[in-house]
Amino acid sequence: MKKRKSDPSTWGDATKLVRGGLDRTKHGETSEALFLNSGFVYDQPETAESRFAGEDDGYVYGRYGNPTVTMFEERLALLEGAEACYAVASGMAAVFGALACQLKAGDHLVASRALFGSCYQIVTSILPRFGIKTTLVDGHDLNAWKEAITSDTRCVFLETPSNPGLEVIDLEAVCAIAKARGANIVVDNIFATPILQRPLEYGADVIVYSGTKHMDGQGRVLGGAIMSTRKFKDDELKPFLRHTGPSISPFNAWVLLKGLETMKLRVEAQSHAALKVAQALEAMPGIARVLYPHLDSHPQALLCRKQMKLGGTMVTFEVEGGKKKAFDLLRNLGIIDISNNLGDAKSLMTHPASTTHRNIGAEARAMMGITDGMLRLSVGLEDTADLIGDLMQANKA
Questions:
Q1: Above 80 in pLDDT, residue 301?
Q2: Can you tell me the mean pLDDT for 32-40?
Q3: What mean pLDDT value characterizes the chain?
Q4: Which of 8, 28, 78, 309 has the smallest CB count inside 10 Å?
Q5: Residue ranges per domain, the chain?
């Protein structure tokens, strides 16, 4: 007797993360199957012909698709509330693919100035090589968006909260401005994750993620994903990504698929801990400022609470004394690790000016508000009291 069918769209987030996209083989395995193969065979030459013609949606080659990858894509799309998902090899492959697939020479791109270092390089250095004009704006300034986005603007790109300054952009307002001028809105939602923020609900067209971060959550593999409409995936993403080749490994997709099962539990627990850590940092001597979306002191606190269910797993703070004092704090940590990764079960801290945002230059860092005393903390799953104690002793030392 077959199991009664249930409509996945009616499920809660936790159920979607555990059971979404599940496609068991005839063997009835409990854990999703891992298909480690690069190619596929066909029963007849006509089958191969119809698949390459797009008349049969079966698999043809690992670069085009894989059953394990499909499960990951369908589970994530179900959670996000998106029509389609395209999994790729890394978060940066997702960012570049989502932009490059729809831009050509002569097109205009408008982006928020506060971006992750590699995203900044794509927008300011790589895309302009292909004749794409770019304009950077202060993300919180709606008038700046209105002035920059014109009828010639093809695409708008932003991240909120930003990396590392945790600047928050009014998604609903910026999406409305962009749509009125016919531009597509691409949102980097890595810091918030689909657990805490759903940009599609505010009018965004495309969402990009680094699966390497919270989806994996344990620092094991690289991966990325692009969420969009079915039409955008078929008309823009597929022709570009299939031929340029940033395909995700089936093994990596399987690890991310399993990571999704616990992502809600981890992100919510880490966010609650991050708020307590941020509050504790505010009370410590020698800390010049603390940035966290759900702190009352955040300059956009009301907007943060409107857009994000919780404040997220990231805390950014600035120590008095610049780079030397920041490095002294880092070297005296006993539990928290020095690492530029984030979203991990282990708490990790980095100095953005000398690592993730080093190559963008001092002028660009200054425009983003990244000082030599700034530190970015990714709060993990350790006991919160232990993390606060570690920060206190490192700060005193």
A1: yes
A2: 96
A3: 96
A4: 28
A5: 263-396
